[in-house]
Structure formats: structure tokens, C-alpha cells
Automatic annotation (TrEMBL), chain A:
Protein name per UniProt: COMM domain-containing protein
Organism phylogeny: Eukaryota, Metazoa, Ecdysozoa, Arthropoda, Hexapoda
Boundaries of every COMM domain copy: 128-224
InterPro entries: COMM, Commd2
Domain of life: Eukaryota
From TrEMBL, chain B:
Family note: Belongs to the COMM domain-containing protein 3 family.
Protein name as it appears in the record: COMM domain-containing protein 3
Biological process (GO), any one: sodium ion transport
Stretch forming the signal peptide: none
Source domain of life: Eukaryota
Start and end residues of each COMM domain: 139-210
Amino acid sequence: MSSLRLTKQQHDHLSLLQRPAGDVVELCKSAFDYLINGPNPSRYETLAKKYSDSGSAEAVQQAVEALISLLISVTTRAGGDCVNMQAILRQTFPDLGDDVLEVLEQFVTSKRNFVEGSIKSANIRAYRLVNLDWRLEVRTASRSLLEQCHVVVTMKLYLHTEPKNENRELLAVDTSGRSEQELKAMQEDERLHRKDLLVQTDVSSLLHMIKTLEDALAESKTRRIRNIVDAIH
Amino acid sequence: MATSPGKSPALEAGNTETTGLLSATVVAGLRNLGAIISPPLTKLLIANSLKLTLHPDATIAPVPEIYASNAACAKQSEYAVVTLYALATKHGWDGLHLRQQLEQLGLDAGAVDELSRVYEDSRKELVLRQLQLGHSFPHITDIQWRIVCDVKSSTSDCSTGVANFHINLGNFRPSSGERVTIVEFVCNAEELQSLINRLKEIERHCNQMAVA
């Protein structure tokens, strides 16, 4: 099992890991916080004061970012779940103690699913259907045809590029207690990643849609498709 | 398509209903048929006007003789025929009612026959055409799908190990038959099943409505 390919700069930024395991736990917690809430300079300031011997708030932030980078590298590289994570980490950081390596292993494994979902979907972000509202309508008159009886199904499709529920929940998280800046960032994210679309169809097209989608689902369950997907995986 | 009620001065002939709907320009255009415009050309002009109404994008073979003499009258008559059919369809006139209205305007008998015959023959198409006019949300009539499983990507060295469905909802342009995509999205098997269930729920409600 080879080591992770980290740049010299990343190794430099991770020099803060050569501290007691308790401090490394703090750094890892800060990295988790970074994933959810973004950078937190005041927290890094406090940590920097605590590590008075080595570094500024900037160095702490760089270490936190390097930890996230490490998390992404591990997840990208080691997709399979039968990987000996500790061996990889030991080869990557030969000068770290066992207790620190254990903390790092916990760090990279506990958030792997979260990061895995994000990086795999970050590749090409297609819209996913999140919800569908519908209304059955009868159009009885219009400017160009005064007498008519036209049955229409109007549907609202809620589409989102953020596919993982856990990630979406972050966007829909309780807004109370958040700063104006954070709320603005969340709204911007909604604007960028959401699309609600109103469409309509008629009853016979609706039946056609159901039949076609059922065919697609049945096809995906065939032995042929299953074999191909298993072989790729 | 001009469907606005005309603010015409009092016409020489015609009842209140017709005078309220057809402007003086339209009535004058109709009166050219079978008179200034010869009967064979009248037939051709009515056929072309109908084609233009039903298929605005269609290419109509040029008939220079229609416009050779009295081009302005011919254009006015084309406008009149299109307007007449649009208004008759809008108000749900049947063939007999259309004939009565035209006869009250004192048109050429041959032109009245031809206008009524063409209207009767094409009434269904005219209604369908006018159903499409006006504002409505994009209408889905076609659905396409493909099953995709990723192998490797620029952001991940390994496959997600699940097949995803790319669903494309769209329709076909009536004039050219060209397919138009309205929306495309991705879902997994679970999400697709949930979508099917939701659509079936709509279908169930439609059936209940039909029974009631």
C-alpha cells in the first residue's frame, strides 16, 4: 500500500500534527466545522494562542485546510472499504506517533461518506428531482377558444444539483441564530443550485410517461445491467 | 393572428353580432372574393389562407397570379379569410351559422359556398390549432431515459457502484416534428420509483374525476 501523494506545501502545513494527540483532535474538529460552516478565524486565533510555541492563526487555518485536503485525497484514492487506512497514513506520515495516527484515521473515516458523496457528485452536477407538486385542471375557456373542456395536469418539478440528502439538509438547516452573512451565502447557494419548473401534460401523455418510466426501472433490474454495474464497481 | 373585435363603422349589411366581430376591412376583403378575385383564384386563396392558419411555418407554393393584379386586394382577402376562420372557431360557430353570417354580408354565392365548405372540412383542425394558442406551461408529451453508471471521474478514482437514470422530458414541435427538451434530470432507482408512484397517484385522481 503506497503513501498518499501530498505536496511539499501540504506537508509543511501539516507540521502542526506533530503535537500531542489532544491538539490534533482540536484541529480535526476545526476541520469538521470548516466543512459545514466555512472558515472560523476567531477559533484559529484561539488555537494559535494555545500553541504559542508554533504558529499564527494563519498557520492554524492552513493546517485545517490541509487536513481537509488530506480527507479528500484519502477519499478519492481509497474508494473501496477494505482499505487499510492506518497503513496508508503511517506511510504518508512516518514521523507521527501512533496516538496521532489513530486520531487521523478516525478523522478520515468518520467523514468519508460525507466527502465521498460530495466529490463524486461535484464532477458533473446534473439536476436531481427533489419533489413534485401537481394539480389537476380543466381549462374551460381561453381568448382564442371560448368554449372548451381541456383536462390538464400541471406539475411543479423541484430540481436541485445537491444530490445527497445530508448535504441538502445543510442548505435547509434551521436559519435561526445565523448571521446575516451566513444567510446570504445560503440564499446564494439556493439560487445557484435550485431550479423549480412548471410544466403540464395531458392524461394520455401521463400514462405514456408512467409506462416508459416503469420500463426504465424494470430494465435496470435485469441481470445484464446488474452484472455490468457490479463489474464496474 | 388578428382576433380583436373591429371598431367598424356601420356596415351596409349584416346583423349586430357579425358587425361586432368582423371589421370593415375584413368584410371588404371577403367581398373581394369571387368578385375582384376570380372564382378559381378565390378557391386557391382560401386554401392557402387555411394552410397558413393551421401551419404558420409551412412553406406555401408561390402562386404569382393571385398577386399579379390587385395584389393589395388579394392580401386584404387573405387577412379576411384568416380572421373569419379564427373568429368563427373562437365563438364555436358551426358550418350553418358561418354560412348565415356570410350570406347576411351579401358576399358572392360561390365564395360563401367555398368558405363554408372549407370551414366545415377543417373545423376540427382549427379548434386544435386554437387550443394551442395563448399562454400555457411547457406541455410534456414525450419522455426519454438512459441508464448510466460511472466508472471513474476527474474527482473520484472509483465508481459509485450504482446505476443512475437520466430522464428527459420534452415534446415535439407540431410544424417540423423536431423534438424539444423541456427539462432533464437525474435520479436513482429509489427516486425513480417514488416519481412513478407520484405520477400514478395523479392518474388515480384523474380516473376518480372521470368516474365522478
